[in-house]
Amino acid sequence: MKGIEEIIRQMEGGSISRRSFVKKLMALGLSVPAINLLLAAKGPGAAAATPKKGGQIKAAFLMASTAEGLDPAKFKKPIDYTRGYQLYNNLVSIDSKLMPQPELAESWEPNADASEWVFKLRKGIKFHDGKAFTAKDVIYTMARVKDPNTGSPGKPYLDSVVEMKADGDHILRIKLTEPSVDFPVIMAEYRLMIIPDGHTNFDKPNGTGAFRLKEFKAGMHMIAVRNPEYWKDGLPYVDQVETFSIPDPVARTSALMTGEVHLVEDLDLKMYKKVKANPNISLEMVPSGAHGPLVMITTAGVYKDPNVRLALKYLVDREKHIKIAHQGFGIPGNDHPISPVDPMYCDEIPIRQYDPDKAKFLLKKAGLADHTFELITSDGLGEASVNDAVVYKQSAAKAGVNVKVTRAPGDGYWEAVWMKKPFCVSAWLMRPTANMILSLVYKSDAPWNETFWKRPDFDKLLIEARKTVDLKKRKELFCGMQKMISDDGGVIVPCFQKFPDAKLTRVKGVPTHPMGAMDAYRFAEKVWLA
Amino acid sequence: MALFLTKRLALGILTLWAVSVLVFTGTELLPGDVATAILGQGATPETVAALRDQMGLDRPALERYFAWIGNMIQGDMGQSVASGRSIGSIMQDRVYNTFLLAGVTALVSVPLALLLGIVSVIYPEGVLDRSISMSSLVLISLPEYFTGVALILGFAVTWHLFPAVVYSSQFTSFWQTMRSLTLPVITLTVAILAHMVRMTRAAILDVLRSAYVEMALLKGVPKGRIILRHALPNALSPVINVVAINLGYLVSGVVLVEAIFSYPGLGRLLTDSVANRDIPLVQAVAMVFCVVYVLLNLIADILVMMTNPRLRAKK
């Protein structure tokens, strides 16, 4: 049976496909049930179940800068996050369904209204320098992020924390000023990767992560090597991970096509077809919650009138936005910031359809039939932002409504245009929970309330939802909030974006995740090379 | 000779000073400031004010200029505001990488240019001369981002001969380093070769038209000897100047090539720090570029003097 062995080897090596594998075996006279048995034992599914040890992985990201470092409290970009996940662990991680999963914390328990939390920490875990992991380290990490002098972008997430107490080495009690059922998700925040108590020198990082630092040069690269004492059994598989940046999208894409890097963050979508056709690369477009809303300031000029806001929402041709502005890579939005990938997404609200008649009627009612709406965008926000504005202008023009698109320079856009001009394009990354984005942007006193929309009844629902532990009830509350924003709020959300997640086909063990490419940047500890 | 050198040196320092003023005012004119750029979408008036205060952006521009230039003269380039690291340590690797790329390119392109220039004057307007002229003119017309991407597409993506991107951890051995540098070096050579070839050719031809060459020809000196022994030394001074300009370009003008190959050199450091509004870093890199230009020109002047006895003679 030398022929069969040869074919099996080819199959395992990936040089022939499943289909030609079956064909060749049938040609050798094997019965279909026998082939199925072989496939189960030797096929791609079986191979995925038995990861191989060893090898080196290279991952290329967008921008690197000399400003980057290995202090989790100051992480800003995906390249920072991915390096952090190699060196450190959080108490909690978020899975691809956006549900919190235990990491350094074994389990957690809220009180009745979710204003107090008890985290049970895992025992027997050691930092890279051999020090044992305890609740003190968590408290130090959190206190550092909370301290305004640290200047951590993660600070707002901990503003509601009033008390952190260690109850022995492995119990942590946290008191909040207000209830938050999502608190475990906060503990999965990038900036809350756990560092040892008292640690300050981040040129010599010390974490509990699957890899130890070998070399780090800011703006150039980081090389991390396997931590042989990692607390997760059998992980990591690879010996070394190198992360660096290739800012130019074409260069990044060609580096993947030549197999020089194993994974890339984002690629040139103009080369989508070419990359997709390449048998050595697996490319998936992953639905996310990132969106570029058209923002109306609800306290300014004509946008004060809810009828005008609604009219402008009826002018969105969502399919066109997806097809033209996002090259087909999007999922329809419904003029609120919660995307269908979020477990709190409300699918009971029908998606608002393009309706020029309704829009014209509403504008006439407001006496603005001949008004010209100026929409400001910028190349600095990316090509899709400008295209969204232009597509919107065109579908409005078809309804006889004048929209003028103005391009502002990318430099200073957030200072001079955003939250200053009454109608402009904004941009939001995906947040892990519905509560987070609503608290950051839509609550009346939200720090980035870009629409200046203030509805006490909305705030009440949000506060209620934060303390509702029951999932079904909570979803109902979020549904109400989504409807409110969609009908009355100041945002037009044409669609949510899909982002590319591209890797070599021989890179295994990296599932897609709505929070970002490469398993939300956590690929390193589970990746292996076929 | 000494007087001449002192004069050139003084002129060089004057140039550096003028450039330092230009660099400083230029970076002052960038829209927005470091504080707003670092904070981005999340900037609030209080955090911006705090950051500006922390970075000393509130002091008058003149005061900041003198503090900066004073430190610069003492070799202290200051700290990067975005990372807090010392600029000297940030630039170290980048300077090495840039000079490595520039050095290898110079070693390849300068002898090649001289050779092609000399070969093409053996039979002026002959087939060889015309084809060298033609091809170098065609090549100089191709922008680097085209040459670079075309080379990547052919040699990296299709034939897998050389890497498509260059990063310093590839530099594990001499041959590995050379392999990584091949495509960027070819791209740069293509960009600067034509200028030097044509200057060599023109300068030698110019000398070949002079009376003493005609004399040598009439005396029966062989053509090769005329070109190498009589014409070339006299043609060297314009060639040296052109070479100096091109070498300066190799250090400071490689931003595009560094971007295409993702090469971690000074050019990328400059573009990164402009994007970060890391003004001290921008200023330091610009000054390094300027020092390189001034030094190269100084060296060129000295070499020209050494090759031309007439310039050395006292007037």
Unreliable segments of chain B (pLDDT under 50, ≥5 consecutive)?
none
N-to-C terminal Cα separation of chain B, in Å?
Answer: 11 Å
What's the multimeric state? Answer: heterodimer
How many separate helices of chain A? 18
Largest sheet of chain A: 8 strands, mixed
Class computed from helices, strands and strand pairing of chain A: alpha+beta
Overall mean pLDDT of chain A: 88
Shape of chain A: globular
> What is the number of helices of chain B?
14
Apparent shape of chain B: globular
Largest sheet entry of chain B: none
Structural class of chain B: mainly alpha
| Helix residue percentage of chain B | over 70%
Radius of gyration of chain B: 24 Å
What are the low-pLDDT stretches of chain A, counting only 5+ consecutive residues below 50?
40-47
Question: Distance between termini of chain A?
Answer: 25 Å
What is the secondary structure topology, with strand pairs?
The complex is a heterodimer of chains A (530) and B (315).
Chain A: H1 2-13, H2 18-27, H3 32-42, H4 44-49, E1 56-61, H5 78-87, E2 92-94, E3 100-102, E4 105-110, E5 116-121, H6 135-146, E6 161-166, E7 171-176, H7 183-186, E8 211-217, E9 221-226, E10 240-245, H8 249-257, E11 263-265, H9 272-277, E12 281-291, E13 294-296, H10 306-314, H11 318-325, E14 330-332, H12 356-365, E15 372-378, H13 383-398, E16 402-408, H14 413-416, E17 423-425, H15 434-442, H16 456-466, H17 471-488, E18 491-492, E19 495-504, E20 507-508, H18 517-520, E21 528-529
Parallel strand pairs in A: 1-10, 1-11, 15-16
Antiparallel strand pairs in A: 2-3, 4-5, 5-7, 6-7, 8-9, 9-10, 11-19, 12-19, 13-17, 13-18, 14-19, 20-21
Helix pairs in contact in A: 1-2, 10-12, 11-13, 16-17
Chain B: H1 2-28, H2 34-39, H3 45-55, H4 61-73, H5 87-122, H6 127-141, H7 144-158, H8 174-208, H9 211-218, H10 223-252, H11 255-260, H12 266-276, H13 279-307, H14 309-312
Structure in words:
The complex is a heterodimer of chains A (530) and B (315). With 530 residues, chain A is of the alpha+beta class. Chain A has helices spanning 2-13, 18-27, 32-42, 44-49, 78-87, 135-146, 183-186, 249-257, 272-277, 306-314, 318-325, 356-365, 383-398, 413-416, 434-442, 456-466, 471-488, 517-520, and strands at 56-61, 92-94, 100-102, 105-110, 116-121, 161-166, 171-176, 211-217, 221-226, 240-245, 263-265, 281-291, 294-296, 330-332, 372-378, 402-408, 423-425, 491-492, 495-504, 507-508, 528-529. In chain A, the strands form six sheets. In chain A, strands 1, 8, 9, 10, 11, 12, 14 and 19 form an eight-stranded mixed sheet that branches. In chain A, strands 4-5-7-6 form a four-stranded antiparallel sheet, covered by helices on one side. In chain A, helix 11 (318-325) packs antiparallel against helix 13 and helix 16 packs antiparallel against helix 17 (471-488). Chain A is globular. The relative contact order of chain B is 0.13. The mean pLDDT of chain B is 83. Chain B has helices at residues 2-28, 34-39, 45-55, 61-73, 87-122, 127-141, 144-158, 174-208, 211-218, 223-252, 255-260, 266-276, 279-307, 309-312. Chain B starts with a helix and ends with a helix. In chain B, helix 12 (266-276) packs antiparallel against helix 13 (279-307). Chain B is built from 14 helices and no strands. In chain B, 78% of the residues lie in helices and 0% in strands. With 315 residues, chain B is mainly alpha-helical. Chain B is globular and about 85 Å long. The A-B interface holds A 60, 63-69, 153, 215, 217-221, 223, 242, 244-248, 250-252, 254-255, 257-261, 409, 411-412, 414-415, 418, 427, 447-448 and B 30-32, 36, 38, 40-44, 80, 82-83, 85, 90, 93, 149, 152-153, 156-157, 160, 163-165, 167-169, 259-262, 264, 268-269, 272-273, 275-276, 278, 281.
